Amino acid sequence: MLYLFLFLILLPAFGQSGPDYNDPYSPIFTDKPVYSWTDKVKMTIIAPSWNADRHLIDSIGDSSSHSIKIATSEHSLDEYRFTETDVNSGIFTAEVILTGFSHDADGDGNFDTTPRTIGNGPTSGFLQVDRDSAITISFEFADGVVLVESVPVSWNLGTINFAEDIFFLENSALVRVVDLDMNLNPESLDNLTIQLYSDSDVAGIEVNAVETSESSGAFTATISLSQNSPSSGNRLYSIPGDSIFAKYDDYTLPKPYTKSDNLEIQTVARVDSSTPPMERIENSPITFSSSLGNPLESFSQNTPMQIVGTIKNEQEFKQKFVYFFQVKNDQNYVESLSWVQGEISPSQILDVSQSWVPKESGKYQVETFVWNSIGASTALSPIMSTMITVQ
Ligand SMILES: [Ca+2]
Ligand SMILES: [Ca+2]
Ligand SMILES: [Ca+2]
Ligand SMILES: [Ca+2]
């Protein structure tokens, strides 16, 4: 308010350009450039000449001779009273709450608005508006001089987002919808429904999201992610590697949609284990055996050997793995690389083996390591390395 006042006082002093006759001085302000259908509109009129008594709060607009009208093309509040912000400010304010029109804003079959046009200010007036309309505030400032300000009203396309791209199991996940049209009451917290599901539970859950403040139009819900318990309430069943999806149905769409259209707005995030990947599978030191399965103490060229590794699933969930066997000679050249793919159950201990025939004598480094896949690989264990000498 002070800012507006100073601005108007200072502007002529810095007036670098001449008066703009196409945009005459119009001291009516609204607190937003565009409103949703059920917004609260805060209006300010700078009218120092209407500060009749500098020791009293003056009012304007509520007389038939110099009335203030707040109107759409179909509904209007006439002689709406604005009151001075201070005894000697010359600045007058009022509020109107927009009430929209009869419409089912959440698709449950019931109207969610109470359209009405009533009130005489300076607060608690209500005004019906359509989806694509405008509010015009007009004030007969002096005899025959009417100041007018118009602001548009429209519906908005909702957005939905998870707070993070990746969530860890047994943690919570925040999901947020912004749809200004669902701020159905600008003086209290509103709610809307968000549907959540995961790759492992496509039926998923429906949760209630609550407006972050009484007129924010932003709605958040917190869910927990569990691999140990089925989906229920605000808990969603999911396992590491799942995608989780959040979906909001917007029944209040701007043009070019029609008023009866609705649109699913969706977002996705990934679920990962809270255990660091490198600790998910235990890779034990390898052993060597003959092709008959007897333990080998020494190695000879051109004699097949079995390289035997042992892995243990350290997690409480089934994991896919790729176990690599890599043999390097003393020049660090890879003589052999092979792998075994499979799945390992929770807490299962599994032997994996691969045969190798050394062609030449010498020293060799046998390395084994575990990845989650061949392509997009995440190491699930550190590399194990053993030196052998082939006679
Ligand atoms: Ca006054
Ligand atoms: Ca409804
Ligand atoms: Ca609200
Ligand atoms: Ca909307």
Protein model, in words:
There is one protein chain. The protein has 391 residues and is mainly beta. Helices cover 3% and strands 46% of the residues. The chain has 3 domains: 20-153; 159-272, Immunoglobulin-like, CATH 2.60.40; 277-390, Distorted Sandwich (Coagulation Factor XIII, Chain A, domain 1). The protein has one helix at 2-13; strands at residues 28-30, 40-46, 59-60, 68-71, 76-77, 82-84, 91-98, 125-127, 133-142, 145-153, 159-162, 166-168, 172-178, 191-198, 201-211, 218-226, 235-237, 243-250, 263-272, 281-289, 305-313, 319-329, 334-344, 349-356, 362-371, 384-390. Strand 6 (82-84) and strand 7 form a beta hairpin. Bound molecules: calcium ion (4 copies). One calcium ion (CA) is lined by residues 51, 53-54, 56-58, 84, 87-88.
Fold topology:
Elements: H1 2-13, E1 28-30, E2 40-46, E3 59-60, E4 68-71, E5 76-77, E6 82-84, E7 91-98, E8 125-127, E9 133-142, E10 145-153, E11 159-162, E12 166-168, E13 172-178, E14 191-198, E15 201-211, E16 218-226, E17 235-237, E18 243-250, E19 263-272, E20 281-289, E21 305-313, E22 319-329, E23 334-344, E24 349-356, E25 362-371, E26 384-390
Parallel strand pairs: 7-8, 12-19, 16-17
Antiparallel strand pairs: 1-2, 2-7, 3-6, 4-5, 4-9, 6-7, 9-10, 11-13, 13-16, 14-15, 14-18, 15-16, 18-19, 20-21, 21-24, 22-23, 22-25, 25-26
The structure holds calcium ion (4 copies).
